[in-house]
Design a protein that fits this description.
The chain contains 8 helices and 3 strands; from the N terminus they run H-H-H-H-H-E-E-E-H-H-H. Helix 3 packs across helix 4. The chain has a 3-stranded antiparallel β-sheet with strand order 1-2-3. The protein is globular and about 45 Å long. It is mainly alpha-helical and 188 residues long.
Length: 188
């Protein structure tokens, strides 16, 4: 499926930081770590492939990008998230895409289409803010910047080389890009 926000396969990435890479036990950081984390989450994320694809198509973004966010944010709707009714981040973030209640009023059930629509609309808004802020960046750079902005707000994205300098674990967009690339090559 084509995306008007750039080709996720062409976005450069360094992948997961050491801290992110170690989520499932010690491993080296980088793209391969992000791919392994995404592989671990594949069965859980695949449960939502139908609604991910539907929402992605409606918003003209590649479904693998949404899958990458879901993997990063909730490990694909892990048991921990399920047992907390979809809440994470100390009760501040909700659903598969972890919509932050401090900035948005969460909509729908934690793993519902309505929730994915809201999360994707927040992502698209973040990408558009980065497009306006950095019009000289390529579509792929703007996509990566939009992913960072989804995590921390567009005002905190200051440069492309430092796109993740203020994100969670300082690797959010790089990790999500690598996970999304994995999902794109695995049926999303």
């Amino acid at each position: 499926m084509a995306s008007i926000y750039g080709n996720i396969s062409n976005v450069e990435t360094t992948g997961a930081s050491q801290e992110t890479a170690n989520q499932d036990g010690p491993r080296n950081p980088g793209v391969s770590a992000s791919h392994e984390l995404a592989r671990t989450d594949l069965n859980r994320v695949s449960q939502y492939k139908g609604i991910i694809t539907k929402v992605a198509r409606a918003h003209q973004i590649h479904p693998a990008v949404i899958a990458g966010i879901i993997s990063r944010e909730t490990r694909g709707g892990s048991d921990k998230v399920r047992s907390n009714g979809g809440w994470g981040d100390h009760g501040n973030a909700f659903g598969l895409m972890q919509v932050d209640k401090r900035w948005h009023t969460p909509k729908g059930g934690w793993d519902s289409e309505e929730h994915l629509i809201q999360g994707t609309e927040i992502l698209v808004s973040s990408i558009k803010q980065i497009q306006a802020k950095f019009p000289s960046w390529s579509k792929e750079q703007q996509l990566k910047g939009g992913l960072a902005a989804y995590n921390m707000g567009a005002s905190n994205v200051q440069s492309y080389p430092g796109v993740d300098s203020n994100t969670h674990m300082k690797d959010y967009s790089n990790d999500v890009v690598a996970r999304a690339q994995f999902y794109k090559s695995n049926g999303f």
